[in-house]
Amino acid sequence: QLQLVESGGGLVQPGGSLRLSCAASGFTLDHYAIGWFRQAPGKEREGVSCISSRGAGTNYPEYAKDRFIISRDNAKNTVYLQMNSLKPEDTAIYYCASAYVCSPAAPQYHYWGQGTQVTVSS
């Protein structure tokens, strides 16, 4: 069964950091771009970051460019999203998904994980 599983979410204080993981089972991530999306209550799902199959990372929204770092470890079949200087507005469910090429558009992605909750609050 092809599956993506996110982990690493939780409750963190403003200014703190979290590292999210996206692990694949049933297939290898080597040939795929992996994107991270997030969805806050009452808002649409938005693309946050993506890493190509060759390891080139892209952060889409302005708020992510200086605070989020995406990386991949193909040996572990896992992609990571390091999030620093977290703010309450970063509170959302974070999803990872696979695609052939990076895109900020969710319809371009074919496999999705179930998501991991990130809550930034004091």
Question: What does this entry look like structurally?
Answer:
The protein is mostly beta strands. The protein has one helix at residues 62-65; strands at residues 3-7, 10-12, 18-25, 33-39, 46-51, 57-59, 68-73, 78-83, 92-99, 111-112, 116-120. Helices cover 3% and strands 48% of the residues. The strands form 2 sheets. Strands 2, 4, 5, 6, 9, 10 and 11 form a 7-stranded mixed sheet that branches. A 4-stranded antiparallel sheet has the order 1-3-8-7, with no helix packed on it. The model has no long low-confidence stretch (mean pLDDT 95).
Q: Unreliable runs, pLDDT <50, ≥5 residues?
A: none
**How many separate helices?**
1
Describe the global form.
globular
Give the mean pLDDT.
Answer: 95
Q: Could you state the order of secondary-structure elements as H and E?
A: EEEEEEHEEEEE
- The count of strands amounts to 11
Q: Sheet bearing the most strands, described? A: 7 strands, mixed
Short description:
The protein has 122 residues and is mostly beta strands.
Main features:
single chain, 122 residues, mainly beta, seven-stranded mixed sheet, four-stranded antiparallel sheet, 1 helix
Q: What is the fold's blueprint, element by element?
A:
Layout: E1 3-7, E2 10-12, E3 18-25, E4 33-39, E5 46-51, E6 57-59, H1 62-65, E7 68-73, E8 78-83, E9 92-99, E10 111-112, E11 116-120
Parallel strand pairs: 2-11
Antiparallel strand pairs: 1-3, 3-8, 4-5, 4-9, 5-6, 7-8, 9-10, 9-11
